[in-house]
Amino acid sequence: MITGSAQRKLQPTFRSEPVYLVYAVILSGIILAIIQDYLFTVRHNTPFVFYESLLFKCVWVVFALAYICSYKSFYKIRKMSYQKLILLYGMLIISHICMTTFMVWVLSWIFKEQGYGLAKILTFTFSNDSTKILLIYFLSIIYVKKLYTPTMNREDAKEIRMTSKPQPKSLQINNGKLHFLVSFESIYYIKADSPYVVVQTEGDRYLHTSSLKKVAEELDTRFVKIHRSCIVNMKKVISYKSRLNGDYDVNLSGDVQVRLSRNYAKKFKAVIGDTLTV
Known about the structure:
10 strands; 51% helix
């Protein structure tokens, strides 16, 4: 089991290469957008005001601020559910538009004799920049969720190995005054049976005064949740068969059968791979 200090080392580190890349992309976006403004004025035979064009490129500066403020939290995005990602996506877009509007409004009043109105700036941001804001944040979240992998130098990896504790090989079961130590290898499945948790082994059935959530935190990677009230030892699985309704029957060694819920089928199949016949 990895300790708290070691767990923090697993979080993304602030490296210079990604920062330079982000800044280069943002600078390129600003330059291209200014060139686009210039070409627009040439085509419509109107005066080009560099200051005004540059002022409304604050939308790109906010992308840089968002990256600097969030790079340490990328690992949290990878663990988020899709519902939370949608909520995060909406909050980022609204925050970005509001911050851009406020920055342009403040700078216009500082450097111009008469600044722009908030409503005018907000309307301009919506009409001209909303598409790029939506697209960039969408692609960024998809990248972090699916492809982003934090890097770690050799010193950090060595420290993690030194500070990591070996995982336990047994589960301590408490039932009143009775206490048992059951090896992970002998456990077939663990089910919630309020107010207890049932631990099934090859020849015994134990009642444990705990919750399924707490027990799951004590187990190692061989145990996978296949139902909201059941955890199975994947080393005991010999086959599984569809019920034709999205659920499955999972057969364990020792002629034991448990149900696999459709909500957990994807993770179960990912763990078991293609070694079993459906």
